[in-house]
Amino acid sequence: MDDPRPVILFDGECNFCNATVRWTAKRDKRKRLHFAPLQSPAARRIIAFADPGIDFEALPDSVVFVDEDGIHTDSTANLRIARHLRFPWSLLVLAQIIPRSLRDAAYRLFIRNRYRWFGRSDACPAPPPGLAARFLDTEAYPGVDDE
Q1: What is the C-alpha to C-alpha distance for residues 45 and 141, in angstroms, rounded to an integer?
Q2: In this structure, is residue 55 part of a structural domain?
Q3: Does the pLDDT of residue 143 top 60, yes or no?
Q4: Angle formed by the axes of helices 100-118 and 74-82, to 10°?
Q5: Residue 137's pLDDT is what?
Q6: Whole-angstrom Cα distance, residue 102 to residue 93?
Q7: I want to staple 27 with a disulfide (CB 3.0 to 4.6 A). Which of 1, 45, 75, 85 is the partner?
């Protein structure tokens, strides 16, 4: 990916995911993380720009992290996000010592239950003040044209 900004693509209809985006933005030590709901046209374009061979529909519907190293999903996406957070949250990267199969199994169990535990919105809410500039639209990615 040519654009150096790491991007969190998240489930914009998930109450937990929306709260997590706000929480993460506050702890982003360099304010480099950007955000886009998975339901947005921007998310499709970001994925296509990062890896044209990826089937967008095959990606998880919870969180996808895109950075200079590619497209990351499940527990790995979250651990890569943790690298951008202030101490002590950045220490979450140490969970990489846990085998990915175990991390992903626990993550997927949580994700399967997120709507039941935290609820679901009918639509993605507008970003809170101060965070809107870090939400991406298609113009944020060179070479990614509107349809």
Answers
A1: 8
A2: yes
A3: no
A4: 90
A5: 67
A6: 15
A7: 85
How far is it, in rounded angstroms, from Cα 86 to Cα 88?
6
Q: Which residues pair with 34 in a beta bridge?
A: 7
Residue 85 and residue 29 in contact, taking contact as beta carbons nearer than 8 Å: yes
Q: Does residue 146 belong to any structural domain of this protein?
A: no
Prediction pTM value: 0.86
Distances (CA, A) of 58 to 55, 61, 102, 105, 117: 5, 9, 21, 18, 24
Q: What is the mean pLDDT of residues 129-145?
A: 63
Domain-embedded: residue 121: yes
CA distances from 66 to 80, 81, 114, 115, 142 (A): 9, 10, 22, 24, 15
End-to-end CA distance of the chain: 21
CB 61 within 8 A of CB 70: no
Q: Which residue has the tokens 């996808």?
A: 64
Query: Residue 140: its pLDDT value, please?
Result: 45
Residue 71 lies in a domain: yes
Mean pLDDT of 50-77: 93
> Rounded to 10 degrees, what is the CA torsion of 142, 55, 81, 136?
40
